[in-house]
Amino acid sequence: MKAQRPAPGDLIQTEILALLGAAGPLSRAEIAQLLRVGTATVTDHTRRLIGEGFIRELKPHASSGKGRPRVPLQLVPTAAHVLGLRVAIDHLAGVVVGLDGQITDEFRLPLRVAESPVALLTRVLQEQIEARRNTTPIRGVGVAVPGMVDPVSGVVRLSAIMDWHDLPLAAELGRALPVPVLVDNDLRSSTTAELLFGMGRDHDDFLVLGIGDGLGMGVVLERRVQRGADGFSGEFGHLPVDRTGPRCNCGNRGCLQSFVGQTALLERARRAGVELGPGYGLSELVDAAERGEPAVLAVLEEAGELLGRSVAGVVNVLAIKAVKVIGESLVLWPHLGPAFTAAAVAGAIEPLRDLEITVAPWRDTEHARGAACLLLARSGAITRA
After folding, report:
1. Residue ranges of the HTH marR-type domain (predicted)?
2. 4, 55, 68, 363: which is deepest, by most CB within 10 A?
3. Domains in the chain, ordered, with CATH?
4. Strands 138-145 and 181-185
5. Long-range contacts of the stretch 227-234 (C-beta < 8 A, 24+)
């Protein structure tokens, strides 16, 4: 296992939990070595985790030398469960995870909550918490939403796709629910999960590109998920690329997502003469691409190139050599990906052209799992009953 630098601040305890979940029992010295922190830091954090019942000491192992016996620490993944919820425009995706970040249960509800978010989300979460009261009691709720979210207050400052403005979602849900509630941006949630359980296993610095109706970018530098001023980082879709371009739902013209977001791709395909049914039409766009319709292939190739060049700009600014691509639009990746990869690599400056681009099958629960991981990372946010 690669030695890792720790995620700073409140993620250190969660990194210890994640490490024990992946590697099995380890001594304090072994944890310190793998996370590259001092043994005293590990001792301090593990003392708290033992006190909460989240980890336990096993029988000491005799030392091969004259030193003190090694005392392995073991994760107790069932000691606490948290619920993560991903809010999308037309549905909710939820998961229950243990302390090791692994999903123990999941659900999906075809529900539009944009017009009445507090009432509808409160009802759903109350039902989910109550349903598990006697089996896997929920210690906290993490909610992942699209848009600009203050991660401290849980206020959704702006979600253009949901038409939310300065919505105090965490406070409202917290008043109604019997457990702590955390609300954050959906891509930042998934980026945290990648740091703890995915790309972060091999990289201290990486990007997470989310492609769907909107475009987001999670940035990890020195094992810290970047939040920006008031938590507003990650709005990659609103990168201005053409001042005379289409009007974006943020109110500006020529944003990147107005060219390569799902809605934009569907509209461009229709303007090119491709017959797509009413509504979402994404599956029909995929079918048209797989049939080899030239107009659709041209639209997707152009979009992939623009997206790749835009990512190359971020790579050059931050000197990052690893990118993970996630999101609903991955169903189009066979047709977006080649142009994206070529443009991203060609656009990177020479020392960065060994860019690692990783694409994994998208699961709708990833944002939800990320929200749960954010809650686990909030020191003191959950306690054992």
Report:
1. 13-58
2. 55
3. 9-77 (1.10.10.10), 80-191+366-377 (3.30.420.40), 203-359 (3.30.420.40)
4. parallel
5. 227/151, 227/188, 230/148, 230/150, 230/157, 231/148, 231/149, 231/150, 231/151, 231/152, 231/184, 231/185, 231/188, 232/148, 232/157, 233/188, 234/185, 234/187, 234/188
Q: Give the number of other Cβ atoms within 10 Å of residue 351's Cβ.
A: 9
Burial of residue 2 (CB within 10 Å: 0-12, 13-18, 19+) is exposed
- State the pTM of this model: 0.83
For 231: left if phi > 0, alpha if psi spans -120 to 50, otherwise beta; the answer is left
Phi and psi at 8, nearest 5°, equal -70, 165
Any idea what DSSP says for residue 31?
Answer: H
Whether the per-residue pLDDT at 383 is higher than 70: the answer is no
Over residues 83-136, the pLDDT tens digits come to 999 999 889 999 999 888 889 999 999 999 999 999 999 999 999 999 999 889
The 10s digit of each residue's pLDDT in 276-305 is: 766 557 888 898 899 999 999 999 999 999
At residue 129, the 3 state secondary structure works out as: helix
Bridge partners, residue 167, by sequence = 156
DSSP 90: S
Distance CA 207, CA 318 (A): 10
Distance CA 119, CA 176 (A): 10
* Secondary structure letter of residue 133 according to DSSP: T
- Which helix (DSSP H) or strand (DSSP E) does residue 314 occupy? helix 294-318
Task: Give the CA distances from residue 384 to residues 51, 138, 156, in Å, rounded to whole numbers and listed in that order.
Answer: 10, 10, 29
Query: How far is residue 186's CA from residue 168's CA, in Å, rounded to a whole number?
Result: 16
Instruction: Name the token pair of 15.
Output: 């990194």
Q: What span, in angstroms and rounded, lies between the C-alpha atoms of 193 and 209?
A: 14
User: Look-up: residue for tokens 């989300």?
Assistant: 121
- In single-letter form, the type of residue at position 88 comes to A
